[in-house]
Amino acid sequence: LLSQMEKYGLGTPATRADIIEKLVSSDTIDRQGNSMHPTGKGKQLIELAAPQLRTPDLTARWEAELEHIARGQGKPEPFLESIRSMAKELVSTVKGSKAEYKPHNVSNSHCPDCNARLLEKKGKRGKFLVCPTEDCGYRRSAEKRLSNRRCAQCHKKMEIKEGKAGLYVQCLPCGITETLDKDKQHVNKRDQQKLVKQYAKQESIGSNLGELLKAAMEKKGE
Ligand SMILES: [Zn+2]
Ligand SMILES: [Zn+2]
Questions:
Q1: Helix H segments across 15-172?
Q2: What is the side-by-side order of every strand in the sheet holding 117-123?
Q3: Ligand 1 centre and the CA of 194: distance in Å?
């Protein structure tokens, strides 16, 4: 990729590695073994972007123009003006366009906090699911979550899954699915914290239930 960028005059020796890193961190390309591939997001971006922006020509022309100016062979003002008017035109085209971006990585799991469909992303420590809602911030690992319930047939730990009616456990190889009893569902740390937060809020309107709950939980944790 570096040599292709060099060939087409994209970036400078100082900026090329950064450009690639930016493409990786914005989830438009990803590493598969020794090579780079566009992600579903990257492929859509190429489709949605204006034709001028899909080829290396424009950037290469700009870089060449900048070189000229740096050598005192061109004037900066007309160059800046042409970029400005072009950017204006591109933005208004995008604003008027009916093309739509569809996230390629929508999972079947819902956010426990706001119920939005979670997006699947690739991190350094494997896949994870992240909530797309602004200010929500919910995220968890997308790897298998195992329950303490064992499959009646093969006795392996069953996988925790999430359906419309809530959580259930499943052994995929045996094709066995069981619902989790609501009262037996293990309350995890996150839910505990949520409960405390929820009740602590009511303190301000004259209830000290939050404090009681906090105290009760601290005692339980001892
Ligand atoms: Zn959420
Ligand atoms: Zn089984």
A1: 16-25, 40-48, 51-54, 57-70, 76-96
A2: 106-110, 117-123, 126-130, 139-141
A3: 13
For the CA atoms of the chain, what is the radius of gyration? 26
Q: What is the pLDDT of residues 97-108, one digit of tens each?
A: 888 888 778 888
For tokens 């008017």, the residue is: 85
Structure tokens at 167: 């959580």
At 23-60, the pLDDT tens digits run 988 888 988 888 889 988 898 888 888 888 888 888 88
> Which residues 6+ apart lie within 8 Å of 154 measured at CB?
171, 173, 174
Alpha carbon of 125 to ligand 1 centroid (Å) = 21
For the chain, give the number of residues.
222
**Beta strands 157-163 and 166-171: pairing type?**
antiparallel
CA of 175 to the centre of ligand 2 (A): 7
Handedness of CA 86, 91, 95, 99 (dihedral sign): positive
